[in-house]
Sequence to fold (60 residues):
Amino acid sequence: MADPGETDTTRPPVDLLRPFPADKMTAWKVDRKVGNVKNDTPDCVEPMGDSQDQPPSLFA
Fold:
């Protein structure tokens, strides 16, 4: 994190606008309960079953 005394407030933080590197991302299937805001438990972020063996798919 930048030192507040060294932050240039006249320039936008362009580093925040760059996409996160895809090779550092991890994706896995999660339970349907993730889509409900009433569910606020740690198991919501746990991988579902053996989904770590399969590549993630947006439309599967």
